[in-house]
Amino acid sequence: MMKVADNSGAKKVGVIKVLGGSKRRYGQIGDVVVISVKEAEPRKIVKKKEVLKAVIVRQRNNFRRKDGSYVRFDENAVVILEGASKEPKGGRIFGPIPREIKERGYDTIASLAQEIV
């Protein structure tokens, strides 16, 4: 179960699959996952039980950067994507976003974020 860091309408999602290989078990920041919406706000873009794609933007496990430092967040969170593109479904992103998201090509998510760590 992961929280959603955008205003698409979903609140909690469950991860079905981590994309990028048949034996791929765990996802990290910047990985695309297939998700199922478990909790959603009424009258919004995303509805409960929908199956969508999302990108992981925060993880509780330590994430090692190239300079040797580590980044860790308080929660696991995703941003729901628009179809197969790298564009977010929502118009706002909540909470801090690591700079690795921009390096992975998600420029729109990085520009909408409140804070980049």
Characterise the protein shown here.
The chain has one domain (2-116): Beta Barrel (Ribosomal Protein L14), CATH 2.40.150.20. The chain is mainly β and 117 residues long. The longest helix is centred in the C-terminal third of the chain and has 6 residues, at 107-112. The model has no long low-confidence stretch (mean pLDDT 95). It is globular and about 45 Å long. The protein has two helices and nine strands, in the order ββββββββααβ. It has a five-stranded mixed beta barrel with strand order 1-2-3-4-7. It has a two-stranded antiparallel ribbon with strand order 5-6.
Helix amount = under 10%
Helix tally equals 2
Q: How big is the Rg? A: 13 Å
Q: Quote the beta fraction.
A: 35-45%
Summarize model confidence as the mean pLDDT.
95
In angstroms, what separates the terminal alpha carbons? 23 Å
- The total number of structural domains is 1
Work out the number of β strands.
9
What is the oligomer described by this structure? single chain
Q: What does the overall shape look like?
A: globular
State the strand order across the main sheet. 1-2-3-4-7
| CATH architectural grouping | Beta Barrel
Overall CATH class: Mainly Beta
Order of helices and strands: EEEEEEEEHHE
Q: Write out the CATH superfamily name.
A: Ribosomal protein L14/L23
Largest sheet: 5 strands, mixed, barrel
Q: Give start-end ranges of low-pLDDT stretches.
A: none
Determine the structural class based on helices, strands and strand pairing. mainly beta
